[in-house]
Design brief:
The complex is a heterodimer.
Chain A (H helix, E strand, L loop, with lengths): L7 E5 L3 H18 L2 E9 L10 H18 L6 E9 L2 H11 L4 E4 L6 H7 L2 H8 L4 E3 L11
Helix pairs in contact in A: 1-2, 3-5
Chain B lengths: L2 H7 L4 H12 L2 H14 L3 H25 L6 H9 L1 H35 L9 H21 L6 H24 L12 H11 L7 H5 L7 H30 L2 H5 L4 H46 L18 H16 L4 H29 L17 H18 E2 L3 E5 L2 E5 L2 E2 L1 H24 L6 H5 L14 E5 L3 H18 L5 E9 L6 H7 L1 H21 L2 E9 L2 H12 L3 E5 L15 H7 L3 E6 L10 E5 L6 H14 L4 E8 L11 H16 L7 E6 L3 H9 L4 E5 L13 H9 L3 E6 L8 H10 L1
Helix pairs in contact in B: 2-8, 2-11, 2-13, 3-6, 3-9, 3-13, 4-9, 4-11, 4-15, 4-16, 5-6, 5-15, 6-7, 6-13, 6-14, 6-15, 6-17, 7-13, 7-14, 8-11, 8-13, 9-16, 11-13, 13-14, 15-16, 15-17, 16-17, 19-21, 19-24, 22-23, 24-25
The chains are: A alpha/beta, B alpha/beta.
């Protein structure tokens, strides 16, 4: 029998709402698998130009998000790790980190957003699904109403 | 964050840092300023640019030392605030922010000038819009840039490099072809040296660009080498370029033609590069002004962030957008002010000068900061780059004086100024210029902000005192006063807890007793202590509010109070440390009245403190009804080892209250005594009497009540409802028990809706052997 996909999952979280939705969706699966959850937040770098926000500001914002993840998984008996990731391409950064951290799968809930916004800010969901060579698990957003497509 | 993380976060090498600085420096300045500078000082404005470059170079040296010593977002503001305190921090923070918005507006008007009258020569529909058109173009572009940064539209470093290298190429071509064409300078200095000096102020706006490198110091790779190099290079390169451009401009066109040109560099280029060259310069100027304004808007948001981090500004402004991950509020605020400045028509020269003014104030203080930090030498300050010893303290001293001299020169005109205030006629020897007036108002705003907002909230303390007297201050004398430690966390219970602690303190010593209010901010293990402290604005604000009101309460109670605001991993061990440090006699904690969680009995903080404190420990559950720690007070007079402590606490409360009564209550079982024939009531009275003696309260007036019943616990619970406050001594004696105070006191605490005071004394510390050993090892 192959090892559980939920043995050691990397969970990219982009904001507090995302963190809440993702941990809610994730909790039942990791509870049974008893694995490790690595919550990761990508701090986008401009790669040579000025970043939109200072790194420290983004790290603090990431801490808030991680707190939501920790709260969401507080009642689940699993290990939660947190990682700041830095990179210019969000999807690529997550996939690289998944390799580095020996993740068994990348797990997230889709964030929605209009086509126009995705064009402006990038469509991470599509990139992750298309580019990853590590299993990608997309969990439904149980909160509902978050997606607007 | 770990060291390797830090390296990942750094993605600016020397070239990137240099181009970011250079992009801002040669941005608008080189294309717009020649007209303004030539009008003011003629060809001698070359000297103005050169002097401006020297002033900046001195600032860059000082700033490099600070930035490598403390690479944090916020640049000059951060260092000044850290070293000189929030008063100067407020001035510099607001100064930099307003300087950057004025500069953005200046760049945008420069953009409008090159776009409409400039490109209008080539593109039909852009021509003929006049002044209004320039303003509208500036507004549209400023709004667009604000939007780009609000929505976090991706820009890449390579684009930035291409733009800057193109600009450098264009200017080098302009300079070379210009030199070959043989420019001839007319009268070198038509308006005199004071004007040349004042022009330094006008053109200084162009030199604020290197600050952008400092504001992003945390993003630079190998900062000890790259940061000073990039800063110095991005000051020296444009200085040389400016001097060259002024030389060629004033040598090619007449001063009047230059002064009346909206697009001076393009007009000059037409003379020796033809229309194609001029078009290239116009396109370059459009790119340059946009890149400068963009960098300024982002830097302004970083200043906002740094101010929020130090609590000089509301952190509301620094929220990161949920989706776009940008500091959207700070960017919007900067954008709006920039739009307003463009729309009200301040005038391009004035915009530039105000920005210069604010940065000259900033750099003057930056020089002071270097000296203060070197003298105070705080632990966190360990600059990898230091001003070479041969140049210290010459650089900061001369640099500061130079900044002040330029400031003075640009702020006043040497014309007597008559000021009439009603009957009083004042004649000042000099007249303030509009720039001097606006700049002074902005500095005054910073000072006002400090007094009205920042003073009570700011986190950083000035290091000036330590710079003057670097010896460590003596530890305060800690005599043998009676000390009560009170951890406070809830504003609703704080007052009652402090009052009860004060009652205990007063009973021991009237004059010297002290209450120590402690509040602990607990931070999770994954974050560093300092990081989290700065971040959790609300928690720190709450802590300060709590401790401030503790001070007010203590003043009312006429008791000496110390406050301790602490950030720690674990409140329990922090409180134990405080008890140890202060050599406390008593610790008094509040309890919510619920127990038996999985991991702890009464609470994660209460368990270790009560279990391990070597002094008296009191746990108070404040009642929903009745007077708290006052009114009708009842002591459970049992035979337990800590009943006398409970009685003592009760007597202290009675002594401190105006109108309180004390009752000692004992419950006896109805069975006859095997030893003698005494009735249960007599036995109860005897226990009470003995207790009063053990507690040393036999001289106080108290009531006694003996109840005879089978079910002791239920009787106590019933009896308790008739009193305002119930005091119970700890019953547990062994160390293995699951209870902290014992099951009876804890049941009373949980079940009775009155105020319940559980007390234990020091004589039997409730430590287990293992805990005792651990403690020994810790000390």
């Amino acid at each position: 029998m192959p090892e559980s996909l939920f043995r050691r999952v990397i969970v990219p979280v982009s904001n507090t709402d995302d963190a809440e939705a993702t941990t809610d969706a994730l909790a039942p699966y990791v509870t049974s698998a008893g694995g490790v959850v690595i919550a990761a937040h990508v701090i986008e770098k401009a790669g040579g130009a000025l970043d939109k926000a200072s790194v420290e500001q983004r790290e603090r914002s990431a801490d808030e998000i991680f707190e939501v993840v920790a709260d969401g998984l507080a009642n689940v008996d699993i290990e939660v790790e947190t990682e700041y990731l830095y990179g210019t391409d969000v999807a690529e950064t997550i996939i690289d980190a998944a390799h580095d951290l020996d993740a068994s799968a990348i797990v997230f809930t889709p964030r929605g957003g209009s086509r126009w916004l995705k064009l402006l800010t990038g469509d991470v969901t599509t990139d992750l699904v298309n580019e990853s060579d590590i299993p990608v698990i997309v969990l439904p957003d149980t909160h509902g109403g978050e997606t607007d497509e | 964050m770990s060291g390797s993380d830090q390296e990942l976060a750094r993605d600016l090498g020397f070239l990137e840092a240099y181009t970011i600085g250079l992009g801002t420096m040669i941005g608008a300045g080189i294309f717009v300023l020649p007209s303004i500078a030539a009008e003011q000082a003629g060809p001698a404005s070359m000297v103005s640019f050169f002097v401006g470059g020297i002033v900046s170079l001195l600032a860059a040296l000082s700033l490099s030392e600070l930035a490598t010593g403390m690479p944090k977002a916020g640049g000059s503001y951060y260092y000044v605030n850290r070293a000189l305190g929030p008063f100067f921090g407020s001035i510099v923070g607001w100064g930099m922010w307003s300087g950057l918005t004025f500069a953005s507006a200046f760049y945008m008007i420069g953009f409008g000038q090159y776009l409409l009258p400039g490109l209008g020569q080539y593109v039909g529909f852009l021509a003929g819009w006049g002044e209004l058109g320039i303003t509208v173009a500036a507004l549209v572009m400023a709004a667009l840039l604000t939007g780009v940064n609000y929505y976090g539209v991706k820009e890449t470093g390579s684009l930035q490099n291409v733009i800057v290298l193109t600009l450098v190429g264009l200017i080098v071509a302009f300079l070379s072809l210009g030199f070959i064409s043989g420019p001839t300078i007319g009268e070198f200095n038509p308006n005199g040296w004071p004007t040349v000096a004042a022009t330094v102020g006008t053109v200084y706006v162009t030199f604020i660009g290197f600050e952008v490198i400092a504001t992003s110091a945390e993003e630079i790779k190998n900062p000890s080498r790259n940061l000073p190099l990039a800063m110095i290079a991005s000051v020296v390169t444009p200085t040389l370029m400016y001097v060259g451009v002024m030389f060629i401009s004033t040598g090619t066109l007449s001063i009047e033609t230059l002064a009346n040109s909206d697009i001076p560099v393009a007009d000059v280029a037409t003379e020796f590069m033809g229309p194609i060259g001029a078009l290239a310069m116009i396109v370059g100027a459009v790119l340059a002004t946009v890149s400068s304004a963009n960098a300024s808007i982002l830097s302004a948001a970083r200043v906002n962030f740094a101010m929020g981090r130090d609590r000089i500004l509301v952190n509301w402004l620094n929220e990161v957008h949920e989706r776009f991950r940008t500091p959207y509020r700070a960017i919007t605020a900067t954008g709006i002010i920039t739009l307003v400045l463009i729309a009200i028509g301040v005038g391009i020269g004035t915009l530039a000068e105000v920005a210069s003014f604010m940065y000259l104030v900033t750099y003057a203080l930056v020089h002071v900061t270097v000296v203060v930090l070197r003298r105070a030498d705080p632990e966190a300050y360990d600059p990898a780059f230091q001003i070479p010893s041969i140049l210290y303290p010459i650089v900061p001293v001369v640099g500061m004086l130079a900044c002040l001299a330029v400031l003075f020169q640009m702020s006043v005109e040497f014309v007597p100024f008559a000021l009439s205030l009603g009957p009083v006629e004042l004649t000042l020897p000099v007249t303030p210029t509009p720039v001097g007036a606006i700049g002074t108002v902005l500095v005054a705003f910073g000072i006002g902000w400090y007094y009205l907002y920042a003073r009570d909230r700011a986190l950083s303390e000035s290091l000036v005192g330590e710079a003057i007297a670097p010896e460590p201050t003596a530890v305060a004398n800690s005599g043998d006063h009676y000390r009560v430690v009170v951890p406070v966390a809830n504003p609703e219970t704080e007052q009652d807890l402090l009052r009860m602690a004060a009652a205990s303190a007063h009973a021991h010593e009237d004059e010297n007793a002290e209450v120590i209010a402690v509040n602990v901010i607990e931070v999770p293990r994954q974050t560093s202590l300092s990081q989290d402290l700065e971040f959790e604005e609300e928690r720190v604000e709450r802590q300060q509010k709590l401790l401030n009101s503790a001070r007010d309460i203590a003043a009312d109670l006429d008791i000496g109070l110390q406050t301790r605001a602490i950030v720690g991993r674990d409140a329990g061990s922090v409180i134990l440390d405080v008890i140890e440090e202060e050599n406390a006699d008593h610790v008094l904690l509040g309890w919510q009245g619920t127990r038996s969680r999985r991991e702890h009995v009464l609470g994660s903080t209460i368990d270790p403190v009560v279990g391990r404190a070597s002094c008296d420990a009191t746990l108070v559950k404040l009642g929903a009804e009745g007077e708290r720690g006052a009114g009708d007070i009842m002591v459970l007079a049992g035979e337990g080892p800590h009943a006398p402590v409970a009685a003592r606490r009760a007597s202290e409360f009675v002594a401190a209250a105006d109108d309180a009564s004390l009752t000692l209550l004992n419950v006896q079982s109805p069975e006859a005594d095997s030893e003698g024939g005494s009735s249960p009531t007599e036995r109860g009275e005897a226990v009470i009497e003995e207790l009063a003696e053990r507690a040393g309260i036999q001289d106080m007036s108290y009531e006694t009540e003996v109840r005879v019943a089978e079910d002791t616990e239920q009787t106590i619970l019933d009896a308790a409802a008739g009193y305002d406050t119930v005091c119970v001594g700890a019953t547990r004696s062994g160390a293995i028990s699951q209870a902290v105070f014992g099951s009876l006191p804890e049941t009373v605490g949980e079940e009775v809706d009155r105020t319940v005071v559980m007390a234990r004394g020091p004589e039997e510390s409730a430590m287990s052997v293992r805990e005792a050993l651990l403690r020994r090892l810790e000390v």
